Amino acid sequence: MENRSNAPRLPVRLALVGGWMLALTLVGGWSSSSWGQPDNGGLGPMSIRNQFPVALAHLNYTPDSAVTLPENTFRFRYQYALTNTFINTQSPKANTTPVIDNSVIRNAGGVLDASHFPATGYALYIDMEARNHLLRFEYGVFDTLELGLELAWVSFGGGTLDNKIENVERFFGGLNEDRLSSERDRYDFYVIRDGTFLRKSTDAFSNEPLDPVINLKWMLSEGGNVLPAMSVKLSYKAPLDSHPKGNRVHISSGESDYGYYFLFSKAIGDVVAHMQLGTTRLKVADNTLADRLKHKMYGLEFRVDGDNSLIIESVTQSSIFEKVDDPNSIDFPISRQTDSGIMGYKHKSDGFLFELGIIEDYNQQRNEADITVYFELGWEW
User: Fold this and answer.
1) What's the predicted TM-score (pTM) here?
2) Is residue 14 part of a domain?
3) CB 168 within 8 A of CB 97
4) Structural domain contains residue 190
5) Coil vs helix vs strand at 345
6) Mean pLDDT value across residues 334-357
7) Of 1, 14, 71, 315, which one is least surrounded by beta carbons within 10 A?
């Protein structure tokens, strides 16, 4: 059985806070003679999908508002996300064989092969920065039905943030010392299982298209003094081609994926509690990756005023690597759930939209991107 004694407690705390807020709202609502309509949606949670490089080839959950656009309303958004990831399951500190460090990569001429990784199980060596450009188009078909389309382009490379991230981690006392045994700002992307590469790339590339995603959101209720706003969201990833070639083999599965998500939000004074649950089903080959991802999001939105909000949220996801129950297995850590904290700021006024945020992996199971910074600009009319 999985040992969770040292599991991060932030998701639990946020869940308890959200639960208490909803409980207090129920008590206050039933005892109140006023049944005015609160703004249960707020400005919505920080809205960015999982940026782990392995996951970009597949559909993934994106936190979203539980309230739909009004009928015949359009919304356009542009998002730019910069993500830095360093994972080495074969580091000298990992007590595994074979070992990968800067000298091994140099002696291999800069390109690793299957002999540098274990013959069984998963192994990862990922050292990269990813830049993601996302366009989102959304339309309110009815007051309770919203249709959306997402188009994205991604670049993989070495980047320039390694030293800066190490300095930040030193400041907070959480330096990933595995980074020190790698060359700065280098690009390597290796994911292997049982001697077969799932990802293998050392040549940087720019602005390759991701598979488009279609979203349909149905608002069941905008809530009130007692009940939260509630919506169901369906997402579908359609492959641009069934047999990706060139650099797209690293960012497209060539298969269709789908997901279903339940969105809840409740305003209590100047605070909006967000809770979201869902599942993403991936079409993957046997003995590669997990075919189902479970998602949970708990967030608190602090309304500074009608136009501005400060937001903190925690997103928990089952690993994209197939689950291993044996704690003695080398695959056990990366098969555990991921936990990411998101903090940011949102603004909306006269149709103009702005969002600025940062994502940090605080679980450190070597199955998630280290850090992402992003901004979003949009317009609603």
Assistant:
1) 0.87
2) yes
3) no
4) no
5) strand
6) 95
7) 1
